[in-house]
Amino acid sequence: MRIGSLIAFSLLFAGLAFSASPAPPPLRVGIVGLVHGHVHGFLAQSRNSSEIEIVAVAEPDARLLSQAAARYGFDRSILFADLEEMLQKAHPQAVLVYTNTYDHRRVVEICARHGVHVMMEKPLAVSIADALAMQKAANTGKIQVLVNYETSWYRSNHAAYDLVHEGALGDIRKWWYTMPQRSERNWRRTGISRLAHRSTRNGGGALFDFGCLRR
């Protein structure tokens, strides 16, 4: 998650954090999962933000939880192995989800029961059934669910969009976008197993993960 999506996250939930006070309190945020690589970009940047406060981290893998605590200086009291326990004890206003894609549905359904808003990394779900279940849970729990399509925050994409709609590029008949990324072989070698599971945890591997950007 880059700084643009941090801003978007803050704006999406602005109604939660902002009041009539000239100095509104920071948004109370919980981190759910530590297996998605974007979590480290977010945690590195969030320490310099006055808009949010990380009040809890939930991750069932004790090794990842311990590594994150050492790397970012988290107090042991805000670390949890179980999401339900985290929500009940830390009371975040929203959570950022960095699990594998398969677990998105479970996280949204649990958070919806507690009235906690959710932002997750792409893609939304591994199946239509899971996507519809999340929609139902969000509506029932009256929560917001946002997918971080990171290219939405690129300044270059916003500039290109403006040029097209200003008519500066003429009649657009085809748009081709290229974005470099490491191969699945390198993901496996570096231990990023989330993208190495083509049909279970991620729904379809790297193609599934990046194909969702074509919208």
Keywords:
alpha/beta, single chain, 10 helices, 215 residues, globular
Describe the structure.
The chain is of the alpha/beta class. Helix content is 43%, strand content 13%. It has ten helices and six strands; from the N terminus they run ααβαβαβαβαβαβααα. The chain has helices spanning 3-12, 14-17, 38-46, 62-72, 83-90, 104-114, 128-141, 155-165, 184-190, 205-211; strands spanning 27-32, 52-58, 79-80, 94-97, 117-121, 145-148. Strands 3-2-1-4-5-6 form a six-stranded parallel sheet, with helices on both faces. Helix 5 runs parallel beside helix 6. The radius of gyration is 18 Å and the shape is globular. It starts with a helix and ends with a helix. The relative contact order is 0.14. Mean pLDDT is 81; it is low at 185-192.
Itemize the secondary structure elements and their pairings.
Elements: H1 3-12, H2 14-17, E1 27-32, H3 38-46, E2 52-58, H4 62-72, E3 79-80, H5 83-90, E4 94-97, H6 104-114, E5 117-121, H7 128-141, E6 145-148, H8 155-165, H9 184-190, H10 205-211
Parallel strand pairs: 1-2, 1-4, 2-3, 4-5, 5-6
Helix pairs in contact: 5-6, 6-7
User: Roughly how much helix do the residues carry, as a percent range?
Assistant: 40-55%
Total helical elements: 10
Shape: globular
Q: State the end-to-end distance.
A: 19 Å
Share of β-strand residues: 5-15%
Structural class computed from helices and strand pairing? alpha/beta
Characterize the biggest β-sheet: 6 strands, parallel
The helix/strand series, from N terminus to C terminus, equals HHEHEHEHEHEHEHHH
Low-confidence residue ranges = 185-192
Number of strands: 6
For the residues shown, what is the average pLDDT? Answer: 81
- Lateral strand order in the biggest sheet: 3-2-1-4-5-6
Give Rg in angstroms: 18 Å
